[in-house]
Known about the structure:
There is one protein chain. The two termini are about 45 Å apart. The chain is about 40% helix and about 15% strand. The strands form 5 sheets. Strands 7-11-12-8-13 form a 5-stranded mixed beta sheet, sandwiched between helices. The chain has a 3-stranded antiparallel beta sheet with strand order 1-3-2. It is an alpha+beta fold. It has 14 helices and 16 strands. It has helices at about 20-45, 75-85, 95-110, 130-140, 150-165, 205-225, 235-240, 260, 265-275, 285-290, 320-335, 360-375, 425-440, 445-465; strands at about 5, 115, 125, 145, 180-185, 195-200, 230, 250-255, 295-300, 300-305, 345-350, 350-355, 380-385, 390-395, 395-400, 405. α6 runs parallel beside α11 and α9 crosses α11 (about 320-335).
Amino acid sequence: MFNRHNLNYSLKNIPAPSNKIYTKTLISQTERFIKRLRWRTKYFLQGEDEPLNTERETYGFRTRNCPPQIPELVEFENDLYNIIKNVKFRPTRNEFQQKMVDDLKRIKGRNQVILEADKTRNIYTIDPDEYKKLLMENITSEYKKVSMSDKTDVDKVSRRIALQLDLADRIEVYQNKECYITVKDHKRNFEAAPKCRLINPAKTDIGKVSKVLLEKIVTEVRRRSGFNHWKSTDEVLLWFKNTTITKKARFIVFDIEAFYPSITPQLLHRALDYARNMIDISDDEADIIFHSKKSFLFQGGNCWTKKTGDMFDVTMGSWDGAETCEIVGLYLLHKIGTVIDVSSVGLYRDDGLAIINEPTGPKMCKIKKDLHAIFKKEGLSITVDVMDKTVNFLDVTLNLKDRSFKPYRKPNDNPLYINTSSNHPPSIIRNIPTAVERRLSSISNSEKSFEDSKDIYQAALEHSGYKKEKSTDCDSALIPLL
């Protein structure tokens, strides 16, 4: 069914554009620059640093108004456009750039649908009929077809909210972007029974408003509660280095299955009610948050919603999906605190980690049972594993014996970096090796951990056109090929 294409280079590499595309992009970016410059100059000439209506909350929506022409900038703008007119191109030959072009032609020439893998860097092609069948199976398993009038009704409510916020001139109607799937080729028995992730790129702009509201709520609840609600590996390591650990301590790891789609209106209500103990949330703000979860899925000109019938759906890729999971996660940590001491447990999105200092057999069994009960009551499913002294969590391996930690990568997940011949800005390419080295250093507790882990990253850098050179500060420094 699937034809695998492992390109052996990062999909983030940027091909060199054609002369026509380069010119169009240059004109577009120049127009954007001039527009911003005109606004800045306008307020500068008026003696203002910014617009007078600074008290108006715009939630990140930019104005659609065009700035007036500034006489003082006319000559400068003409010079900019003359530069574009006089741009000349010369032919170049780059082996890596040509390889990307050839690979793209080869894959497109198959007259098949191109699929990305969910958690690996593989690319697959599949016959259009097979793709359509797989897509419909994933849609019909969770969604039902509805009338476009339902979307129109949601747009009407969105318009009312936009008018209340004085943002009707900036907020668009619901985007009718078609859904697609990625393949979970890391799952067992993938070829015989392929599993897919359904991606819904359709969004409502009200989600941007909800995102700002939820960010404010999450920040305050995280501060007031003091829970270990992690946002990065660095926060996990800070907790690990400072938490109390006994000689008998063991890890417990748990994972919330299908976290995003499993969040129900009732669970989000309970999470917001819990948050109201620490921050004021008006009824209007709550209405906006819930309205942004009215989601539609589009395919082949048809409109679909969740089979639950209430149109409520926290979709991956939605404007406020991550923030919704964070406020629910804080509420879940509050519940977990009845089973495990809150200072000994933490949550990163759908991944949880705890240290149990007196891990007797009956105690660990009871904790597992209680965790399952807590999440089941909230309508969620989890997997719970009792580990020994070491655990792989996010991109680090933690060791309770000596409080050590080192970098971790999943099996068959080899790093890939953008090539030195990619069409990225030179400053980005130049800084990649330094960024890799700093990252490895930050998740290695000792020089030995760094040295033991660096080879795979060094090899990936060299494969992408970088080279290792001696440094005056450290022999292991990674220096780009300039």
